[in-house]
Amino acid sequence: MMRVVLILLILSVNVFAQAGKEDSLLNVARKGNGKASIDALNGLAFEFKNKNPDSSLYYASLALQFSEAIQYDLGEAESNLATGMAQFALGNSTDAEKMLVFTLNEFQKLNAEGKTNFKRIRKNLGDTYTTLGNVYYSKGEYLLSLSCHQNSLSARKSIHDQAGIATSYNNIALIFSLQGNYSESLKNHFASLKIKEQLKNKRGMAISYNNIGLIYRDQGKDEQALEYLDKSLQLAKEEKLTNIIATCYVNIGAIYMDRKKYDLSLKYLDLSLDLSKKENNLENISNALGNIGELYSKQGKYKEALEKEFQAVKIKQEIGDQLGESTFLIDVSSIYFKMGDVTRAISYGEKALALSEKIEAAKQIQEASKMLVDCYRKKGNFKKALEMQSLSLLIHDSILSKANSQELVKQELKYAYEKKALADSLNYENQKKITDISNEEELKIEENKQITLSVILGLVILSALFIFNRFRLIKKQKSIIESQSKNLESTHNELEERSREIRESILYSKEIQNAFLKSPTNSENYFKDTVLLYRPKDVVSGDFYWYKEIGGDMYVAVGDSTGHGVPGAIISVLAIQSLEKTIHNITNNGVLHRLNEYIKHEFNAYYNDKDHVSIGLDYSIICISKTHEKLYVSGSGSTVLVKDINNKLETNKFDNINIGGSAPAVYEPSTVIYNLNQVQSIFLYTDGIVDQKGKASGKKFGTKKLKHMIMNLNTKDAVTAKEKMDKELDEWMKDGNQVDDITLLGIQIHPELSEIVQVEHFLKKNSTIRKPIYVKEFNTVINHNELTAYLSEAKEILSKFEIAKAVSKKCYAIMVEALENGIRHASLENNYRRVFHKFEIGNESIELSFGNFISEKDIPNLKKHMDIIEKEDQEKIKELMFIKAADGAGLSEKGGAGVGMFDMALQSKGNIKHEIFKVNTRFYYFTHIKMDYGKFSD
Amino acid sequence: MENLAIKSTTNTPGIECDFSSNQITIEGESRPENVRAFYAPLFTWIDGYENKMAAQSSAETSKMINLDLKLEYFNSSSLKIFMEVIDRLKKISDTSGKLHLSINWYHQEEDEDILDSGKEVEKMVGIKFNFISIP
Q1: A622 and A710 housed in the same domain
Q2: In sequence order, what E strands does A446-552 have?
Q3: How confident is the model at residue A608 (pLDDT cuts 50, 70, 90)?
Q4: How confident is the model over A419-441, as pLDDT tens digits?
Q5: Which one of A809, A812, A817, A902 makes the best mutation probe of the B interface by having the most chain B beta carbons within 10 Å?
Q6: Between A55 and which of A48, A278, B25, B38 could a Cys-Cys bridge form, CB atoms 3.0 to 4.6 Å apart?
Q7: Which residues of B are less than 8 Å from A891 in CB distance?
Q8: Is A380 helix (H, G, I), strand (E, B) or coil?
Q9: DSSP H or E segment with residue A186
């Protein structure tokens, strides 16, 4: 499911609204003359830059015209700045960028000339850098943006523009956080915050608190995050800043969602929704709705989730936010998929895909196509699935290269600093000189009016001479440094280009390898949950994982090929292919594979000479066999941990023989066999994890610690388990080197596997529809309301497939009786309350299957009824049913009339089969009904 | 005496009991989550009705009590309840001697299953039903 935690970033801080300011400016602009009038016009242009950018452009153009007429350089530059700002506000980033770069030059020139009003020039310089920085930020050019904001900061510092400094710190912080450099980001945020506190800029403070909170969230420091978000919220409430309040609610809600505190999360999301509704802020409304939808979906409340997501989609359509629309359509698709309604999942997935392709939203295209891969796979439409898979891969690749270029920013930055340190030492000298001169001049004018002209002249000449000399020297140094730096730059560029090519090629290999790696996450019929730690030492890995289902058997393997990096990856792909081939050779004696002979025969035969390169691997393989109700565990050079239902962890260490490599020509690995109903979970791993050295201790992680970690997982969901294991491993490694590829795959066996096996056996035995035109299946605890919802859905389906009314009614009646019986009989014990149902429509018939647990004492009565149905004819059954209904004995303890089975037998005209199975220590009761359309449509 | 009116839902029928006109109507789909609990008010009403009838002077003119069953679908538990209701009303009618019970069993024209069930119920309770087909 697409994660839609919407974080609202607030970029600019300076909004100073002053009533009456515009009027007085207009007055001056109209009545004043020369520079005063131009300044007023520019003032107006700045005032309107966000409120009404078009007006701003108009005033700026007037100011520019007049400035040119009287050669008022500062006025000209200011009007250009206002123009650039207004264009940015209008969303014309390209025009804005051009104009601002031009303006920047003008102000730099003015600054260098050392005019007396240098304060004003530098204020403008700071503003120009900031706006340009924001333009670059919006274009995703973070390196340039950062450099602009840093320049802005130093310009503002030189004139003690406190408000401006606070803004610059905030902007710099945002970029650092984007790069994941949280400590730098926080440093800047706090610097910004401190100034805002001094200036009592409450809005700015609220923004800082919010942004700081988000950084803590990114670092996983939820407590601090909540603390700051709460500060922001309180302040925003005091100041009645509704947009910030709504933002805080969404962010707090997101943190609680991360922590799975769904009630709290919902509370905050609802608050945000209510507030946004009051403000009629459609964008915030739809985002809150989408988040609430995600929340419900996480809780398994799919109906509610859909309702919210549909509302969100509708609003996104209304406001023309196609990106948002496609995001939420993907959610809808994913919810339907989770509900088992693959047809609808496909329909919405395709819609989302079409839309995201139209607007070229890469992330959305990828998510939608990924969703569709699963859908089409489930539908058995492998051609379409493959098509989607390749689309997903293609897009993933392009996103990756973009993400990668962002990753590079960090490294580029480092390089840029070094380069600057070399070349800019001079610039700094230069600028400092200029600043000194202007300061000196001012001082002289103000303090030493009585000093004679000759002295001044003398001083000026002297200092000019000094500067001239110094300048020549510096110029010489500069040219040397510049040429060195140019050389350095070209070498760097060349190296970077090469390394980029290699990196891209390896990244692409990784994609290819990923296409081969298969983690059995979606095999709900076997596993309750799976958890995978997969950490290649390099980009690609010699480790691999794989699974395949054949008939009622699920094979899962984890392997470690000789070497890591690219060579390892190539072997891993060969190994996977070999597994795919040899797995078909399974014999019933428990031997899982003939991998060794196959690899020796197919590949290593070519390397029998001396100095041969041998292809070898260590691996573990398991087979969860529903057909035999056994777990087979085997491997070579590896260890498999099996946790039984009593929480005992068993270690299965296999021969230390390298398959394909050092193993003898014919080698049969040993196999350990478990009864499936005794197994709770299985852990397959490569030696990378136990061999990993701790940075502090220098010791290996070791099997003992691994076992300890597994025994202490104590969690029911895989996400937390993964987080826990990742954390423990990280803490062990610290920032030390990873010594080998690490793979650990934990599998929790479906606790209802025996039940699933029985269901599958029953269906196999009785179901006759080979190519159903409609299938619906569930095996879950249901209540009466859910039954009602299901029944109305079934009604719709029956009419959609134009099943004769009489047949539909009978179908409906059977569903009611059987499912109500199921609900009634479901034992109140937690694990035995599920009701199984399958509804299939074929080309000629409808088949209905039902199953539920029953208590042992109900069995004799049930068997009596089963007997009657089998032996007696329809008339007799009908008679018995109405006699029992009229016996005046009242309903049973559970509220049944005791005639439901008779009713079902009558409705199905005797085409009904029953069976009672034993599942573990419980009994399970099945019914299967077949209805031919023809028979009923008379 | 209070009249009883329960609105219908997707899975429960509407029930109307009118004392002054001696009319009971059950209409819609009947498969409540808890059948006994759902029909409890109806039985309470019938209890009250029975008491009133017993208290009335024998001088009053004879009356007719009408039970209209207009059902689209009912489950087997509901069937059992209907049998009980008819049984109760039959007893009241029998004891009073003057209260005549009339049962109207409605069915959609094409819905032969409902009609068939009605005929079976008629057979069991031993009272003649009026079968009314709704086109």
Answers
A1: yes
A2: 527-535, 543-550
A3: low
A4: 444 444 444 444 444 444 445 55
A5: A809
A6: A48
A7: 35-36, 77, 80-81
A8: coil
A9: helix A182-199
Least confidently predicted of A74-83, A85-94, A228-237, A816-825: A85-94
Minimal Cα distance from B30: which residue of A? A816
Q: What's phi and psi for B134, nearest 5 deg? A: -100, 120
Question: Going by DSSP bridges, is the β-strand pair B23-30/B63-74 parallel, antiparallel, or unpaired?
Answer: parallel
Residue A71 zone, left/alpha/beta (φ > 0; ψ -120 to 50; rest): left
Q: Please tell me which of the candidates A806, A882, A907 has its beta carbon nearest to residue B120.
A: A882
Residues A176 and A123 in one domain: yes
> Is the ipTM beyond the 0.85 threshold?
yes
Query: Measured between CA atoms, how close is B59 to chain A, in angstroms?
Result: 33
Owning domain of residue B107:
4-134
DSSP string, A411-459: HHHHHHHHHHHHHHHHHHHHHHHHHHHHHHHHHHHHH-TTS-HHHHHHH
Any domain includes A322: no
B76–A885 C-beta distance less than 8 A: yes
> What is the per-residue pLDDT for A180?
67
| CATH number of the domain to which A908 belongs | 3.30.565.10
- Overall number of domains in chain B: 1
Residues A670-685, mean pLDDT to the nearest whole number: 90
Q: Cβ–Cβ of B124/A817 closer than 8 Å?
A: no
Q: Does A298 reside within a domain? A: no
Q: Which of A459, A488, A513 is the last residue of a domain?
A: A513
Phi–psi pair at A811, nearest 5 degrees:
-55, -50
Q: Say which of B31, B35, B125 has its CB closest to residue A891.
A: B35
At what angle are helices A118-138 and A73-89 packed, to 10 degrees?
Answer: 20
Per-residue pLDDT reduced to its tens digit, A724-751: 888 888 888 887 788 888 999 999 888 7
Q: What percent of chain A has pLDDT over 90?
A: 18
Chain B residues whose beta carbon lies within 8 Å of the beta carbon of residue A817: 75-76
Q: Which domain holds residue A628?
A: 520-751
Q: Is B111 on the interface with A (CB under 8 A)?
A: yes
Domain match, A731 and A799 both: no
**Domain end: A142, A159, A186, which one?**
A186
- Report d(CA A553, CA A535) in Å as an integer: 28
- Asked if B34 has any chain A CB less than 8 Å from its own CB, the reply is yes
Q: Is residue A722 part of a domain?
A: yes
Q: Taking Cα atoms as reference points, which of A206, A279, A211, A204 lies closest to residue A16? A: A204
Same domain, A801 and A743: no
Tokens 């070209």 belong to A490
In a domain, A276, yes or no: no
Q: Is B33 in CB contact (< 8 Å) with chain A?
A: yes
pLDDT in tens, A778-835: 988 898 888 999 999 999 999 988 888 889 999 999 999 999 988 888 766 777 888 9
Per-chain mean pLDDT for chain B: 89
Find the closest chain A residue to B35 by CA distance.
A895
Query: At A633, which CATH number?
Result: 3.60.40.10
Side-chain half-sphere CA neighbours of A593 within 13 A: 31
Query: CA-based diameter of chain B, in Å?
Result: 45
The answer to whether the Cβ–Cβ distance between B77 and A809 falls below 8 Å is: no
Q: What is the pLDDT of residues A370-403, one digit of tens each?
A: 889 888 888 888 778 878 887 777 776 655 554 4
